[in-house]
Design a protein that fits this description.
358 residues; mainly alpha; A middle domain of Talin 1
Length: 358
């Protein structure tokens, strides 16, 4: 709570300082505010997650359902807020749509390669077959459906966004309807999702949810605004900023939770990443598309269609393939996933420098 409040006051203070001293155009000030907003987004999302889990537990929901639903939505809260906030600005700045699309695809790719790789290198572990066959397949299908919608007319229309959100709702309803079966699977593996402050009152958890959401909304607005300014000042395409800076930054909650879970179980860490990668291409981008149709700009078309989308699909398929081999991911396979992300960054830089063209 103290860190969240300090980051909030830091953004206010630096913004006031830049306005009062005519430093608003400084790239350094812009970077400082963007970093503070990113930090506030991560901490406020974690604050929201703990409150939501506490409320759900007090409501009598099975722990595994809490992890698959509320935790997945909570860790994807930064992506949801960033993309929906960006979508609201598309009418006045069409290039922001590239930022939103790149942010979601970048988040999926960074989670299934870089973050999964870091978790595996930290602790190689076995994969439960049920996680892979159920949620892994749905993750891949979610990315493919989103890709199909984006490639048709180069625009994610409102009705297509509605379908994505509906598919996510169906997935959640299915989980709730089969919660007893899933709970039995979890009991067999003796997995547990820890909730900090488990003796807190319902009022305390409610304050955490409301406060976390309010801070996250504030942070998301500033992150989109100042990330766009950075793109303009450095002449970097919106899609690259969304895919790298925003993609990594908004995925930090997944990294933190996955690393903590990996120390206690062999399935929760992978489930956290896969669950979030179902939420992002369905719910996060779907809600943004409902706010405003997301059209890929002419400047961002080649980058998104020929680089970002293929890397995301190949990354998902490669990760699932590695999980499928003996249902275990070894440390060397984790390094392979990290190298895949490094190759992606090199490709982005080569394209930005016009070393490669399509």
């Amino acid at each position: 709570m103290i860190t969240t409040g300090a980051l909030f006051l830091g953004i206010i203070g630096v913004s006031f300082l830049s306005d009062s001293t005519d430093m608003g155009s400084s790239i350094l000030i812009t970077l400082v505010i963007a970093c503070l907003a990113l930090g506030l987004l991560v901490f406020s999302a974690d604050f929201f997650i703990e409150g939501a889990k506490g409320l759900a537990r007090r409501g009598g929901l099975p722990e595994v359902v809490i992890g698959l639903t509320i935790v997945s939505i909570g860790t994807s809260l930064p992506e949801i807020l960033v993309t929906t906030t960006a979508a609201a600005d598309v009418a006045s700045s069409p290039g922001v749509a590239d930022f939103a699309i790149g942010g979601i695809l970048g988040s999926v790719f960074v989670q299934i390669t870089l973050i999964l790789g870091i978790v595996v290198v930290n602790k190689g572990f076995k994969i439960r077959e049920s996680w892979l066959k159920r949620d892994g397949l749905i993750m891949l299908l979610s990315v493919l459906i989103l890709t199909f919608f984006l490639l048709t007319e180069r625009t994610l229309q409102r009705w297509e966004s509605g379908i994505l959100v509906l598919l996510y709702v169906i997935y959640i309803v299915w989980l709730l309807m089969h919660r007893k079966v899933i709970q039995m699977e979890e009991d067999e593996n003796q997995e547990e999702v820890e909730v900090r402050g488990s003796t807190w009152s319902t009022a305390a958890y409610t304050i955490m949810v409301i406060g976390g959401l309010a801070f996250a909304l504030f942070a998301a607005h500033h992150l989109v605004e100042y990330a766009s300014l950075i793109a303009i000042k450095l002449n970097v395409p919106h899609a690259i900023v969304g895919t790298t800076v925003s993609g990594i930054g908004t995925s930090l909650p997944e990294l933190t939770i996955a690393l903590m879970a990996a120390k206690k179980s062999q399935g929760v860490a992978i489930g956290t990443l896969i669950g979030s990668n179902i939420t992002d291409p369905l719910l996060s981008i779907g809600l943004a598309g409902l706010v405003h149709p997301l059209a890929i700009s002419p400047d961002g078309f080649e980058l998104i269609v020929y680089i970002i989308i293929p890397f995301t699909i190949v990354g998902c398929m490669s990760a699932l393939l590695l999980m499928r081999t003996s249902y275990e991911i070894k440390k060397w396979e984790g390094y392979t996933l990290i190298l895949m992300y490094i190759l992606f960054i090199i490709t982005l830089e080569a394209y930005n420098r016009n070393w490669i063209a399509f």
